[in-house]
């Protein structure tokens, strides 16, 4: 081999090392072939365990009594594979308490997703001091279908459900 000449594989090793270093430096971003870059979505978080017993059951068969609620769907957030995060607030007027559990109901009246309430919402407490509580916020993961869903607050103790709002596709 001539003086100063490199072995043929030397340039290849240097190129591979540079590519590896560049790849390691960009670990905080999805790569061009990652599921995020290709438009695929992560799996939705697991629903609350308490909802498992109600999955696919008719809302009115399980919660036949009707209560009155007020509330608002504030935000459609993060999207997942076949689902999306929804956040808002609600107050059970009939029982004078925050809604602690929520059920997403499909067009056939079946419960298909669940969420937890009791989250602090200082903005709502400031606008509605008559509630006497700021724990009126909720968050859930709803199916993201072509049709809308209805959202109900549920109270297991009184076997009642109150309409909170419509979740739009």
- Outline type: globular
Distance between the termini: 70 Å
Low-pLDDT sequence parts: 19-28, 31-35
Q: Using the coordinates shown, work out and report the CATH topology of the largest domain.
A: Immunoglobulin-like
Number of self-contained structural domains? 2
CATH class annotation of the largest domain: Mainly Beta
The helix/strand order is: HHEEEEEEHEEE
Number of strands: 9
Write the layout of secondary structure elements.
Blueprint: H1 10-25, H2 59-62, E1 65-66, E2 69-80, E3 83-92, E4 97-98, E5 101-105, E6 111-119, H3 122-127, E7 137-143, E8 149-155, E9 160-167
Parallel strand pairs: 1-9
Antiparallel strand pairs: 2-3, 3-4, 3-7, 5-6, 5-8, 6-7, 8-9
Q: Can you describe this structure?
A:
A hairpin with a 5-residue loop joins strand 5 and strand 6. The protein is globular. It folds into 2 domains: 40 residues; 119 residues, Sandwich (Immunoglobulin-like), CATH 2.60.40.10. The termini are far apart. Strands 1, 2, 3, 4, 5, 6, 7, 8 and 9 form a 9-stranded mixed beta sheet that branches. It contains 3 helices and 9 strands. About 9% of the residues have low confidence. With 169 residues, it is of the alpha+beta class.
